[in-house]
Amino acid sequence: MSIHPSLRTAGGATSSSRNVLKRYERVRHLMTQGQWTDGQSVFGLPKLKQTKIKARKAAKEKEETAGAPAEKPAAGAAPGAGAT
Asked: Of 27, 36, 57, 84, which has the fewest beta carbons less than 10 angstroms from its beta carbon?
């Protein structure tokens, strides 16, 4: 059965951030952290803190402008004079 159009969200269900991990996701995270031992029970796993990292646009723009030098007018050219 499909969802009524008035009940749908703009981003969809998969685009939103979840604050609860499934059991296999928690086990995978524990394995990458080195806290999982073989033969350990999958019940009673510790809670894992979800961190959401946001990239700042201002910092990214500063890095881009720092790499490219600003154009400077020639020493003998007048500020408002065009080449004719």
From this structure: 84
